């Protein structure tokens, strides 16, 4: 039997919590607030085109408002050496505000819309946009954070089976916590050295430049992988293949290269029966929305062609996890 390729999409949905240490709320409003409008469009297109996707969502966003948020905070909070990385001083100062500012922090209605849309799954992006590789934080603090994320999701009626680590800061020492709390899969990083450790503000200029170059030229490889080669124990690693970097006006002359980089990776996977895992943040489509939307449509159209020609299938992380973990391996999650 010929093995069919699989096309996986995961989205990191984080609102202001994901960029709070980088941008002011005014900067976020100017640059990224359009993601609230782009998500319903994405859901409509995904359902119409039968695109399966996993939405990794910051746990704080499940709250209705600031008052409810205070009832779900974890006991232990991350003790980063760089205190600006923690949202809790920001929360204590009440800077999240009300009205429009509140909509930049909480999104229970959008989460419900995601959950109700065919082929979509709600996942976790930790409770507080937790950074697993930053100095000062501990595995116990991570456990409390993830437990809080799962707790609020369950209270709201969502079953969490997968995780995406914020800024792709994967810490192998924390995999035991995932297993302990019932997480069946995670999005790991591409194996190439420029992605292996995830992202942080301390990344070198060279590293950032190579990642940018990889958007347009094949520096790291296609990064497709065999589903049959995924280790059959939980939690399973479903590595990213490529980041859908947004349109750049300064580099618009390179748009054809950016598109070819992704489409060629998808084709490579479809022809060889491999997994191609594309990811982005909804806000990546918010600036220059017309250019970014048309670019995404070309990707989805290409997937449909690969589906017809090679039988490539769209699956979310949860579905792929089920496909690669035979029933006997599920016992590992329960009994170790």
Automatic annotation (TrEMBL):
Ranges for domain NodB homology: 37-184
Matching Pfam families: Polysacc_deac_1 (PF01522)
Biological processes per GO annotation: carbohydrate metabolic process
GO molecular function per UniProt: hydrolase activity, acting on carbon-nitrogen (but not peptide) bonds
Name this protein carries in UniProt: Polysaccharide deacetylase
Organism for this UniProt entry: Paenibacillus taihuensis
